[in-house]
Amino acid sequence: MKKKPSAIEKYLFDLNGYIIIKKAISPKEVKDCNKIIDDLKNLKNGEWNGYVHGHNYGGKEGLNLQQIYESGKPFEKLIDHPSWINHMQEFVGGKGTFDHQHGPLFIDENFANVRGPGEAIGIHSGNPEGIQRNHYRYQDGKFHCSQVNILIALTKIGPGDGGTVIIPSSHKSNIQHPEYQENKMKKNKVTSAENMTGSFEVYLDAGDALLFVDSLCHGSAKRTNKGERRIAVYRYGPSWGFFRHPYRPSSELLDRLTNFQRKIVMPHEKILTPSN
User: Fold this and answer.
1) Using CA atoms, how far apart are residues 230 and 203, in angstroms rounded to an integer?
2) Residues 6+ apart with CB under 8 A from 135
3) What local confidence, expressed as pLDDT, does residue 270 receive?
4) In this structure, are strands 200-201 and 209-213 parallel, antiparallel, or unpaired?
5) 3-state helix/strand/coil string of 114-168
């Protein structure tokens, strides 16, 4: 049964820019996703396993397994998972408008991330950047967001595990965080997210999910514990959007998906060639 966002979830999403969905996926779903990651986590940056690509940004943010929905049913199910798909349609918005003409939503990036000791990703994003891809608006009783993320914990994430760090309500702030600005001026590539004034480290049990608008200022704490932090992230936006990276869904994947899933993964199936 597909869950609908409650009145309090809509209020908190608007107020803070995020909500936490407890037990979003089942222990079996967590186990099945981790089995796949076990087979893929030794990929190096730039290597492929089927249609899954090993990727990072050249820092110490861990390994991204891009196009993770290509890896099998456990990750295919996350495309329109009943715990959050209605939340995405509500928060991305656009139903009954031009924004909705090609389909209900669009996933412009999806990946699993494996992060070990000493690894983190710096603080980034925030409303003052003014990026259209991260646009947030609430108007006439409806949300209109260009990108809303679901981050699913595939391992327990507590103190020392390198949890996601957010600055609540920064999706509405008109002023750049002074400490973030100071770090940029020093050319420090990784701002210590967990030490920034107003930041909040999110702790999750395996199977919990953090849903947030991408204009929320976010990053992660540095992992100090042994072992691995594992998450999956799916980024949703309006159907007119296009892919952030030069990845495209395979024909094999599209053939396996339901019609509803296919519209989310590739709403641009028919691309017309301009006439001469």
Assistant:
1) 13
2) 144, 145, 146, 147, 215
3) 58
4) unpaired
5) EECCCCCCCCECCHHHCCHHHCEEEECCEEEECCEEEEEECCCECCCCCCEEECC
Distance of CA 234 to the CA centre of its chain: 4
Q: Distance (Å, rounded) from C-alpha 112 to C-alpha 34? A: 10
Reported pTM: 0.93
* Alpha-carbon gap, residue 265 to 67, rounded angstroms: 11
Domains of the chain, first to last: 17-242 (2.60.120.620)
Rounded average pLDDT per 10-residue block, the chain, 276 residues: 94 98 98 98 96 90 96 98 97 79 87 94 83 89 95 98 95 88 55 83 98 95 96 95 93 96 87 49
Q: Which of these, 229, 132, 217, lies nearest to 180 by C-alpha position?
A: 217
Among the residues of the chain, which ranges form H helices?
A: 7-16, 27-40, 73-76, 85-92, 178-185, 251-256, 259-265
| Per-residue model confidence (pLDDT) at position 182 | 65
Q: How confident is the model at residue 103, as a pLDDT?
A: 74
Confidence (pLDDT) at 276: 44
pLDDT of residue 183: 64
Return the residue matching tokens 């798909």.
85
Residue 115 in tokens:
């992060």
- Quick one: tokens of 189? 């590539």
Q: Give the integer Cα–Cα distance in Å for 173 and 19.
A: 18
Cα–Cα distance, 157 to 105 (Å, whole number): 29
Helix count and strand count (H, E) for the chain: 7, 13
